């Protein structure tokens, strides 16, 4: 529970590369996936193991396997798709629940336009992925709808989070854990994170950069 800034040297280095104003779409995408894989490693370190005896090359051998924990990855469209493969690299059998949220650039209010969730949410850990946690509106709205659909254990992975957004999410949902590559300084007057990454959706999809 709470917010965890994962200050691993490889994450710090890769995030530094992502902040360059001249970064290409290709590099931004690749780095987003790589950092997500590193965040996933950290966010799953408390998963429980169960001993299991298998047939090894020299006879029976006791190994360990992850138990019971069924997972659904929840990318928040659009930008969250840029992190999906990074989680799937480590958990290739996880089911995917897609949620579409769009933020009104004037009011900064998030609204849901798609909700395609897998079943048995009460038996799965939900891992939400979205590169940017700014005001927190998109994240809160996603957590609200997941809980309504039965989720009881929720973790959120973000590349960059604003302190204001973290505070808002944890005030609304104190039982949720947030793993982020960086807690940045603040939001600007347009709700963009500083120093941030700019518009992550535009950078991942190669669409027009907004004047932010
Ligand atoms: O914390 P918030 O203030 O809600 O802002 C963060 C949200 O804004 C961005 O999405 P956007 O609405 O730009 O949609 P996109 O991913 O389709 O670009 C980003 O990917 C988050 O979902
Ligand atoms: O800094 C921000 C805030 C919202 N959405 C983004 O893509 N970037
Ligand atoms: Mg966007």
TrEMBL record:
Boundaries of every Phosphoribosyltransferase domain copy: 7-207
Cofactor binding description: Binds 1 Mg(2+) ion per subunit. The magnesium is bound as Mg-PRPP.
Catalytic reaction equation(s): UMP + diphosphate = 5-phospho-alpha-D-ribose 1-diphosphate + uracil
GO BP: any one term: UMP salvage
Any one annotated GO CC term: cytoplasm
Activity regulation (UniProt): Allosterically activated by GTP.
Pfam family, any one: UPRTase
PANTHER family: ADENINE PHOSPHORIBOSYLTRANSFERASE, URACIL PHOSPHORIBOSYLTRANSFERASE, CHLOROPLASTIC
Functional note: Catalyzes the conversion of uracil and 5-phospho-alpha-D-ribose 1-diphosphate (PRPP) to UMP and diphosphate.
Protein name: Uracil phosphoribosyltransferase
Lineage: Bacteria, Pseudomonadati, Pseudomonadota, Gammaproteobacteria, Pseudomonadales
Gene: upp
């Amino acid at each position: 529970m709470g917010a965890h800034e994962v200050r691993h040297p490889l994450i710090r280095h890769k995030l530094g590369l992502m902040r360059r104003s001249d970064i290409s779409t290709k590099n931004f995408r690749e780095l987003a996936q790589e950092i997500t894989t590193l965040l996933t490693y950290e966010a799953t370190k408390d998963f429980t193991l169960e001993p299991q005896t298998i047939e090894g090359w020299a006879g029976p051998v006791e190994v360990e396997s992850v138990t019971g924990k069924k997972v659904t990855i929840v990318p928040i469209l659009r930008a969250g798709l840029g992190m999906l493969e990074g989680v799937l690299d480590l958990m290739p059998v996880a089911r995917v629940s897609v949620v579409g949220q769009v933020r009104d650039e004037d009011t900064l209010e998030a609204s849901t336009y798609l909700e395609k969730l897998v079943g048995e949410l009460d038996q799965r850990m939900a891992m939400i992925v979205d590169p940017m946690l700014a005001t927190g509106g998109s994240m809160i709205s996603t957590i609200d709808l997941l809980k309504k659909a039965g989720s009881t254990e929720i973790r959120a992975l973000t590349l960059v989070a604003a302190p204001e957004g973290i505070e808002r999410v944890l005030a609304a949902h104190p039982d949720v854990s947030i793993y982020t590559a960086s807690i940045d300084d603040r939001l600007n007057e347009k709700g963009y994170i500083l120093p941030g990454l700019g518009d992550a959706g535009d950078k991942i999809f190669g669409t027009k950069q907004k004047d932010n």
